[in-house]
Fold this sequence. Notes:
Layout: H1 3-17, H2 21-34, E1 40-42, H3 48-58, E2 65-67, H4 68-75, H5 85-93, H6 100-116, H7 128-142, H8 148-156, H9 158-176, E3 182-183, H10 184-192, H11 203-212, H12 221-224, E4 227-228, E5 235-239, E6 241-245, E7 248-249, H13 251-259, E8 263-266, H14 267-270, E9 275-278, E10 282-286, H15 289-298, E11 304-306, H16 313-322, E12 328-332, H17 337-350, E13 354-356, H18 361-367, E14 368-372, H19 375-378, H20 387-399, E15 401-403
Parallel strand pairs: 3-4, 10-11, 10-12, 12-13
Antiparallel strand pairs: 1-2, 5-8, 5-11, 6-7, 6-9, 14-15
Amino acid sequence: MSDRNEHSKKLAEYLREKEMVHFSERLCRHLIRLGRVGGSLMLTSLPPEEINHLHGLMGALPGEKLSLRSLVRSLQSTVFAEADLFLAMEFYCGKPLVTREERRAKELRDREDFFEQLDDLFALPLSERQIVFRERLSLLRENPSLLPAFQSRYADDPHKLRRDIQYVSQGLRLLDAGAKKLYLPKFSAEVTRDPHAFDPGGFLYQLLLFSLEDGGVKQHILSRHRILRDDFSNQVLFYGICLFCEKGPIGFVQQAFDDKEPLILPLYTLKQAVRAEALDAKVFMVENAAVFAELFENRKDISLIFGQGQLRRAVTALLELLFTSDVRLFYAGDFDPEGLLIAQGLIDRYGEKVSLWRMGVDDYQAAISKKRISPGRMKKLENLKDPSLIQLAEVIKETSLAGYQENLSWLREGEME
């Protein structure tokens, strides 16, 4: 071992023997951040015994800030004169001190290697959809923002990301092989042996949508490629609305309409319809089941939809059937971030066809509860764009309290005229 290495190792041993743990760890972090011996190190909050050991090492009592150049000069008059401070700290840590620049350079090399090796995941010959998928992955290489979840998945586990890409590639080959229409869980099971691997919201589902994007309406991507979502468990509750197929009214829906009875229909049935008719030009939609029940029992002369607290596909499918005619939707939701965002989503989607109903500041003050909204949920209000919703959000921010539809009276005279 060279004299420089020997003296550096002895300096590391000295720091260990004197149990200068806090100073040494602080020095290591500083060197990693700076990438060289330089700058100054704050000594505040160091244990007194470590300050005393530094005093002995340097021959003078250090102040609150220690210049590393001053420390190196002080070492010149000790047995550690030939020690390299950076090397000494590597001996102390038992591993090389990888600087931020070196770590970033390695991360970039690893990322480039990852994309270079992606071709190995595609079995030749490539199918038509696989070729498109490979091209879209090349776009991600240059612009990760096209699919932010991709970068997160890579950071968490590149090996799992490779497996996910392989799964999507296999699924695309299955589609190109002329597979018949498949429900998403069946497609998932055929590709991965797990019917839930491609569940909506998960990374595989996002990656599949990304691979199939073709410039059309995003909500219909899967169906355009013969992959069907579950059309039976996705349902909507309503009354005062009749559905029509090409041949005329759908019989059992017409019967419920005439008898003024509520119906729960799956998305599957809604897809058979071509249009919907309400009792008049107004359709009301509420977020909560209790409010729906109260209105049904007392106002069977209106058209009403239960929104279920979210914009499920069955709900939006029914609305789109209604909007084929001259209908206006009046939406009433809870006074919390989620309720206001549903309202914003409806406005974004259907524009002037949507009016807010019982969602004013006075309504909020009547519906207010004692349930506090967490800061994390409150941040969701920043995504609002509609002026009246923004005004309401400002009042909610002042109290941090949620308001609920169930606290309002829904049977006021002239309410729905």
